[in-house]
Amino acid sequence: MKDRSSSFFFWITGACLLLLGALIFRDFLFGGAVLLYTDIGNDSVNSYYPDFVNLSNYIRTQGFPSWSFHVGMGQDLAYAAGYLIWQPVSWLSKDLIAPALVYQHLGKVLITGLFFFRFLQLHRLQTPAALLGSLLLSFSAYMCIGSCWYPFADEVVCFTAILLATEEAIRRGRWLLLAFAVALVGMITPFHLYLCALFLTFYVPLRLFGENGWRPQLVLRTCLRLAAVATLGVGLGAIITLPYLHAILNSPRASGTTSAVAELSSFNFFRLESSLHYVTSALKPFSNDLLGTGDSFRGWQNYLEAPLTYCGLISLLIFPQVLVGGTQRRRIVCGLFLVGMVLLTIFPWLRYLFWLFQGDYYRTISLFWVLGALTLSAMVFSQYLEGRPLNLWLLAGTTLALLGLLHLPYERWRALLDPGLRFPITLFLCVNAALLIAGQLWKRQTLVAWLIVGLAAIELTMFDHITVAKRKTVTKEELRSRVGYNDETSDVLRDIAASDNEKFFRLTKLRSSGPSTAPSLNDAMVFGYYGTSSYSSFNNINYTNFLTALNVLPPNSEVHTRWSVGLLNDAALSLFGCEKYALVEDPMPYQRALQYEFVKRYEKGYLFRNARFLPFGLAFDRYLTEDAFHKLPGDEKSLLLLHVVVVSSESDGEKLGLAHANLSEVEQDARNLSLADLASARRKTGLQLTSFNQTRFAGTVSLPQKSILVLQTPFDRGWHAVQDGQPVPVLKVDVGLLGVGLDAGEHNVQFRYQNPVLVTSVLATLISLLILGVSVWRWPRLNVPG
What we know:
Elements: H1 2-24, H2 26-29, E1 33-37, H3 43-61, E2 67-68, E3 75-76, H4 83-86, H5 94-122, H6 127-138, H7 141-145, H8 150-172, H9 176-188, H10 191-212, H11 216-236, H12 238-249, H13 252-255, H14 261-265, H15 275-283, H16 313-318, H17 328-346, H18 348-354, H19 363-385, H20 392-406, H21 411-416, H22 419-441, H23 445-469, E4 473-475, H24 476-480, H25 489-499, E5 506-509, H26 523-527, E6 534-535, H27 541-549, H28 558-562, E7 563-564, H29 571-576, E8 579-584, H30 588-592, E9 596-601, E10 606-610, E11 618-620, E12 622-625, H31 626-630, H32 634-640, E13 645-647, H33 650-655, E14 659-660, H34 663-672, H35 675-684, E15 688-692, E16 696-703, E17 707-714, E18 719-723, E19 726-728, E20 730-733, E21 737-742, E22 745-753, H36 758-778
Parallel strand pairs: 5-8, 12-13, 12-14
Antiparallel strand pairs: 1-4, 2-3, 6-7, 8-10, 9-10, 11-17, 15-16, 16-22, 17-21, 18-19, 18-22, 20-21
Helix pairs in contact: 1-5, 1-6, 1-23, 5-6, 5-8, 6-19, 6-23, 8-9, 8-19, 9-10, 9-11, 10-11, 10-17, 11-36, 12-36, 17-18, 17-19, 20-22, 22-23
């Protein structure tokens, strides 16, 4: 009978989650908005949406995510492979992706809420307390921000699953869910495996201590067994995690090129933040939008990077009760948790350490606060339902302190707050406190508990609707109109495809089609053409090194390695980079340039053809070293790339049988040889493509002497080359591009790409699956007394 009742309330919880989700996201379900934001949340439309569209097209035409020429000048798509699991809209066709985003998010809301409800049930909490905790987590600020920064919602799902899986393993010996939860967390990003390890390292010992007291052998034995299960989970997810890790390690952020480690680790431990930071930290738990919404946010950092700690006002009222009620062990655990979170807030150096000095973020720290605060608050609420009295003096003091904080008579403080939210927050705090006191005095705790659940639902609907809907978004009408990613660019590409049979060329597009005011650099991913710009957290390091060497990107700029404009506004670089067409708003500069021919005018743009187009793959028999290249003036470098190949050292050039270029001779050639004649000469020894797709291409080349064939795409160890059926090594040339040394004569050349750790990752996953099968048969339950 108890199991049937538990199952009934489980499904009731699911219905409540869907109903509340429909109310909060009503503008997206029944109105005209879609979950693509054009305010500060424009990553949704400038980064994630292009990734989803590119991935959707890729799996239909190429298969498993690998190299894509639609990202920058070429990039391994391993960083997006996890989206096939976490962002299922990636499986849909382009037209369905944007409208489906709200259903994807509500699916994650439902999974999170049911997981957390079940987790609280395992702690034997009363049903209203478990339901309240489920609603507060599923519609916390962190989860709502995940409506535009989609991986945030994935984190909530994953760490809730880890909580539930850990509890299942400790209480019932059921360990299988933990292995799959760890596998999934690594598919968000490999870095999340570190966050998962950190979470379990603190949570499991504290949880065991809270239940069983200080029993070192029990803690050690349990931790080792759970660590073995977690390690198995890492292996299960290796097929996605390891290739993703390779892509991350080959990006500027992870390689140390633009790392913040040196700067952040040098700060003094006791260095404090600004007063605005502490004000923001104090006020964000009241409402995610008390300090402003979206672009209007007035607190520390910005709407995303500020603490995301709102998880219901009721949790603020009852959380302090954990420090005075329950067992002494539980009070110690609660105190340690609270002290840890306070220290992370007061001393920024500890936050830097949390993130391994990679940045100053509150992201996952906020989630850990929410999970801890809600778990402990739900326990207090459940005890209240069971008749254990709250400390009414503490409750009254907490209420007065919160109201005092909200209504401080300080002008600068008040100027930060949204006056439209102060009154409802005050009202909700007072009504919740009054209900708790009345329920205890009149012995009507159960009735009051259900009233508080209803009040929390009203509060979440009101506050979360501001977070998700009172902001600038793309509309469904815009998806159908000739604007944004549905503009005339599709017509341009259709016209080009009808008249041009070239297997590979690049298009320069100076006007972004993205609907956000912030320019999109990923139009090529949405429209399916080849460009050179890219906005990505993990751009290929050889791509950014190449652009930095040419002074296109400033050196040591982490921001510019993510927002890379590519080979724009430089005639020689565009020519070198296989530009054949340019779509521009202002035709005058291109009409004056000799190399461009006008093709057609469109509603908002003009299409030009580069008459001196160079093929993908240029051969050079003279070399210059990187040291010499870096010393050249910036305006000479781009033109020099059309004359010589740049190699790491003289010994590399000599091994390949190339002639060392004399700078004065090269400069004289550049002066005497017109760009048209130079382009004609380069085409004669260029690669003539016979076949081309994203990961395999082939062609013929005729060379008078030994040369290096330079492919205008970033170097990666995953590339392999074959000359006339014989493998030849690939090289890094031109400070980051792909090259291969070829003999004199006519040759058939083939190139193929495979992520260099893909085979290892597949083997790791297969072995882990084998171990999983044996373990399920041999040890269906773990002996983990908790």
